[in-house]
């Protein structure tokens, strides 16, 4: 069975790409290149699903919103 997940990708101050999967709390990884990141996040998703079990229902991804605040 194939599932699709939204992945949020950010770049940290040291140049690493960081991926998190909003539908799977605690599911995240990092890598120096986007290609490596995509491989690693697929592995992380598989592991998270394995731990959660067959009856796990992922959280629904709603979206990303930009918020402006005075600093």
TrEMBL record:
Q: Which Gene3D superfamilies match?
A: 3.30.160.250
According to UniProt, the name of this protein is Putative RNase H-like HicB family nuclease
What InterPro entries is this protein classified in?
A: HicB-like, TA_system_antitoxin, TTHA1013/TTHA0281-like
Q: Give the source lineage, highest ranks first.
A: Bacteria, Pseudomonadati, Gemmatimonadota, Longimicrobiia, Longimicrobiales
Q: Give start and end of each HicB-like antitoxin of toxin-antitoxin system domain.
A: 5-52
Instruction: State the PANTHER family in the record.
Output: ANTITOXIN HICB, UPF0150 PROTEIN SSL0259
């Amino acid at each position: 069975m194939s599932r699709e997940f939204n992945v949020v990708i950010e770049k940290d101050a040291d140049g690493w790409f960081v991926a998190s999967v909003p539908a799977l709390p605690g599911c995240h990884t990092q890598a120096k290149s986007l290609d490596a990141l995509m491989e690693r996040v697929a592995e992380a998703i598989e592991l998270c699903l394995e731990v959660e079990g067959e009856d796990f229902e992922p959280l629904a991804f709603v979206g990303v919103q930009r918020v402006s605040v005075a600093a």
